[in-house]
Amino acid sequence: MNSPLSPIDFEDKRLKIKFKLEKRLQKELQALTKDPPTGVKVDAESIYRNLSEWIVDIDGAPESLYEGEKFKLMFKFGSRYPFDSPQVMFIGENIPLHPHVYSNGHICLSILTDDWSPALSVQSVCLSVVSMLSSCKEKKRPPDNSFYVKTCSKNPKKTRWWYHGK
Amino acid sequence: MGNCFKTPNADDISLLRGSDSSESSDQPIGPPPPYQERQNRVPIYHPSPNVSRPANQLSEEEQIKIAKRLGLISHLPTGVYDGSSKKGKECAICMGEFTLGESLRFLPCMHTYHKDCIDDWLMRAFTCPSCMEPVDAALLSSYGT
Ligand SMILES: [Zn+2]
Ligand SMILES: [Zn+2]
C-alpha cells in the first residue's frame, strides 16, 4: 500500500518549513534593525545566536502616561510560526501598569491569539503594544490581576482570554 | 485593538438571572470562569487559528468543516510565477520573494501567496492574512450568479 506521504517526503516537508521559518525570522530581524519604528529597539547580535527567542526594548511614547519609561518585551517563536502567533510578554523589572497587562507580564491583546494573522510580524506586534500603552487613560492593573496571576499558565498563549467587543 | 478579560457587570447579572430572581441578587455571581489550559497535542488539523487537534479528536462538525474547506481551497485559482505579476512579488506569509516557477495561489481579494504557504493558513482560518477578507464570502460573491 502506498502511504500518501513517505517518510522521506515528510522529512523534506519538515525541513522546508524549518528553513522558511528561519528565513522569515532573519528577514524580520534585518528589517527591524535597519528601520526600527520609533521607540522600538532590538539587540540583533544576541538574537542571531538564538532566533527563536527575541528581547525587544520598548520606550513609553512621548506625551503618553508611560513617557520616559523603558520596557522589555519577550517574543518566543514556536515551530509553527507564522501560522501560530508568537508568545509575547513583558519581562524584567518594569512591567507597565496598564489595564490589559498583568503583573506577571502577560498581555491581553487579541492579535496575540484569536486575531493573529501570518501577515503580522514582530514589528506590527510591537506597534500594537506601543499604541495600546499610548492610548491608556489610567495606569492600573486589570481587575482580576491577583486571581489571574495565581492561576494562569506560564505561557500566556495557553490562556483562553475573554475578549470583549468582538 | 486591546480587548481584555471582561468581568461581569450589573447588566450581565440581570440578563443572566432574568427578572424573577431579583431576591437572590445579593449572592455574588462567582468568580470568572477559570482560565482553561489549551491542550498540547500533536498538531494535525487546525479547525481554528491556534487550535491543533489530531483527526480522531475532531468533532463531526469540525470534520465536515475541514472537508468543506479542502473543497473550497481546491476551487481557488493557482498558477506559476512567471515574473509578470503586478500584484506584489513577495509572499506575506514567509516574506520570501516569488521566484520563477513557484506555485502560487490567488485569493479572490487579489492577494497572492505561495500555494504551500496559503494552503497551510487556509486550513486554520478562511481569511486572507493581509486584508482579513473572508475568503468564502468573496468566493460566493465572485462565483455566485
Ligand atoms: Zn510564502
Ligand atoms: Zn486579501
Automatic annotation (TrEMBL), chain A:
User: Which reactions fall under this protein's catalytic activity?
Assistant: S-ubiquitinyl-[E1 ubiquitin-activating enzyme]-L-cysteine + [E2 ubiquitin-conjugating enzyme]-L-cysteine = [E1 ubiquitin-activating enzyme]-L-cysteine + S-ubiquitinyl-[E2 ubiquitin-conjugating enzyme]-L-cysteine; S-ubiquitinyl-[E1 ubiquitin-activating enzyme]-L-cysteine + [acceptor protein]-N-terminal-amino acid = [E1 ubiquitin-activating enzyme]-L-cysteine + N-terminal-ubiquitinyl-[acceptor protein]
- For this chain's UniProt record, which GO biological process terms are given? protein ubiquitination
Parts forming coiled coils: none
Q: Name one GO molecular function term.
A: ubiquitin conjugating enzyme activity
Q: Which parts of the sequence belong to the UBC core domain?
A: 20-166
Do you know which InterPro entries this protein is assigned to? Ub_conjugating_enzyme (IPR050113), UBC (IPR000608), UBQ-conjugating_AS (IPR023313), UBQ-conjugating_enzyme/RWD (IPR016135)
Entries under SMART domains matching the protein: UBCc (SM00212)
The catalytic activity of this protein is classed by the Enzyme Commission as 2.3.2.23, 2.3.2.25
- Keywords from the UniProt entry: ATP-binding, Nucleotide-binding, Transferase, Ubl conjugation pathway
Q: What class of enzyme is it?
A: transferase
- In terms of superkingdom, the source organism counts as Eukaryota
**Could you confirm whether the keyword Nucleotide-binding appears in this record?**
yes
Positions of the catalytic residues: 108 (glycyl thioester intermediate)
The UniProt similarity line reads: Belongs to the ubiquitin-conjugating enzyme family.
- Put simply, this protein is called N-terminal E2 ubiquitin-conjugating enzyme
TrEMBL record, chain B:
Q: Where is this region: Disordered?
A: 1-58
Species, as recorded: Pinctada imbricata (Atlantic pearl-oyster)
SUPFAM superfamilies tied to this protein: RING/U-box (SSF57850)
- Compositional bias ranges of the Polar residues kind: 49-58
Which UniProt keywords are given for this protein, alphabetically ordered? Metal-binding, Zinc, Zinc-finger
Residue ranges crossing the lipid bilayer per the database entry = none
Q: Does the keyword Zinc-finger apply?
A: yes
Quote the protein name from its UniProt record. RING-type domain-containing protein
Does the keyword field hold Zinc-finger?
yes
A GO BP entry is: ubiquitin-dependent protein catabolic process
